[in-house]
Specification:
Elements: E1 2-6, E2 10-15, E3 20-26, E4 29-30, E5 46-47, E6 58-61, E7 64-67, E8 80-84, E9 88-94, H1 97-100, E10 107-115, E11 119-128, E12 134-136, E13 138-140, E14 143-145, E15 158-161, E16 170-172, E17 193-195, E18 206-209, E19 215-220, E20 226-230, E21 236-240, E22 249-256, E23 275-277, E24 282-292
Antiparallel strand pairs: 1-2, 2-3, 3-4, 5-13, 6-7, 8-9, 9-10, 10-11, 11-24, 12-23, 13-22, 14-22, 15-17, 15-19, 16-18, 18-21, 19-20, 20-24, 21-22
Length: 293
């Protein structure tokens, strides 16, 4: 099922399968990657209760290990609409017999999308409906067309612009894992600009931590057009485009949680940036896109 939102300036389409926003159209321009399988058939999955990989494909709660697929259990299951308005929709996913075999908690995961004057916002709310403390990670994986229009040039005519990020280092994974022995990248040494270069992603995602301002602009150096991506409340930002494919999109991935580290165990609480909430407690986080034209 898909749900269309409109506000006169723009429209968005939200799909209940996976709870994703799969289109944002403004002035005839599509901002969201449309899932061409030649490059990547995903669009904007919600990552829960892990971001990226779990150690050895498993996660442990109170000493018991459970199988955990990459990016978790939410992205390939239905959400149910709990509110549908002209410019806003709220979807909810609850546990099932299948999810309990991988994530042994009763939970509510809500995805809320709203059109704004500047663009759109996404908000994710996790509620612990269980009797025990619940530990999890939560993140987004939205893909954005790059370039947005022919007048913007090509992929490598774009840059990411951060704020006060000079000197922040970046990590890359090795064999799918975080590894302290892999050298950090000084890609922001003395600058707030990170030009997009396809070969930078030939290994895997670039992962930025400790950004002082949780905001980045993706802008064409040819036209000056693009958008601002705000992700306050998230601990890390992953940057990804498929390796060796020269794909016309980039994923900006805000995470509370990281790919598995070679030094961590399967215990859920060993995952960096994990969150824990008590019974009946909620945790919310989100991101926003603002058009620059």
């Amino acid at each position: 099922m898909t749900i269309t939102l409109t506000n006169g300036k723009a429209s968005a389409v939200v799909r209940t399968y996976g709870g994703e926003l799969i289109s944002y159209l403004r002035d005839g321009i599509e901002y969201v990657w449309q899932g061409n399988p030649e490059h990547w058939n995903g669009q904007a999955p919600i990552l829960f209760p892990v971001c990226c990989s779990a150690k050895d494909g498993k996660i442990a709660f109170d000493g018991t290990e459970y199988p955990m697929p990459k990016h978790g259990i939410a992205r390939k299951r239905e959400f149910e609409p709990v509110y549908i308005g002209k410019t806003k929709v709220v979807l909810e996913q609850r546990e099932t017999e299948e999810t309990l075999k991988m994530f042994p908690f009763c939970y509510s995961l809500k995805a809320e999308y709203e059109l704004t004057e500047e663009g759109f916002s996404a908000k994710f709310t996790v509620k612990n409906l269980d009797r025990n403390e619940m530990t999890f990670c939560i993140g987004g994986h939205p893909g954005f067309n790059c370039p947005l229009t022919p007048e913007d040039g090509g992929f490598e005519d774009h840059s990411l612009y951060f704020e006060n990020a000079e000197g922040c280092t970046a990590s890359i994974t090795k064999d799918g894992y975080m590894n302290a022995e892999v050298p950090k990248l000084d890609i922001l040494k003395g600058t707030n600009e990170l030009p997009l270069v396809w070969s930078d992603y030939d290994n895997d995602a670039i992962i930025l931590e400790d950004l002082p301002v949780k905001s980045v602009k993706l802008v064409s150096r040819v036209s000056g057009n693009g958008f601002r991506f705000d992700f306050e409340g998230f601990d890390a930002l992953g940057l990804w485009t498929p390796d060796h494919k020269h794909s016309p999109f980039i994923c900006l991935e805000p995470w509370n949680g990281l790919p598995a580290d070679v030094a961590e165990t399967t215990d859920a609480k060993s995952k960096k940036y994990h969150k824990s909430i008590q019974p009946d407690e909620e945790y919310s986080v989100g991101y926003a896109v603002s058009v620059i034209r």
